[in-house]
Amino acid sequence: MDHTNRDFTLHRRANLNTLLHEFLKTRIAEGAAPKGLEQEFAKQLQISPSMLSQIKSVRPIGDKLARQIEVLCGVAAHWLDEMQSAAEPLPDEAEDHIAELARQAWRQCNAKQKRELRLHLHSLADPAKA
């Protein structure tokens, strides 16, 4: 299957966030306090909390790290590479994800498209001014 690096980056990040969400949901259901759970997840992945923060937002997940994450989370090889059915994201994660998508769209637009995107976002944010 033909994938661009951009597809891999987006799929891997979205799928990592799904794994994190499932980890948080499970640990909280087991009675763990929410504080410190992301650090615990990073430890499970054998990466630093700083690295986890970076790959959740801006740093691409390379092949070696993707395979490591899959093994340590007990999912199939190359699971991160394909878009999975996402669990309902946590509110902050959903907002961060939308902001990142808007940022990516903005960066790919020409000047005319940027104007149109800005006007559309303004109309959604404040329909009375549209």
Low-confidence stretches: none
End-to-end distance: 43 Å
Shape: globular
The H/E string reads HHHHHH
Query: Taking Cα atoms only, what radius of gyration do you get, to the nearest Å?
Result: 17 Å
The level of helicity is: 55-70%
The helix count comes to 6
Q: How much of the polypeptide forms β-strand, as a percent range? A: under 5%
Number of strands: 0
Mean pLDDT: 82
Briefly note the structural class of the backbone: mainly alpha
**Could you give a short account of the major beta sheet?**
none
What's a concise summary of this model?
With 130 residues, this protein is mainly α. Helices cover 67% and strands 0% of the residues.
Task: Write a structural description.
By secondary structure, the chain is mainly alpha-helical. The chain is 67% helix and 0% strand. It is built from 6 helices and no strands. The radius of gyration is 17 Å and the shape is globular.
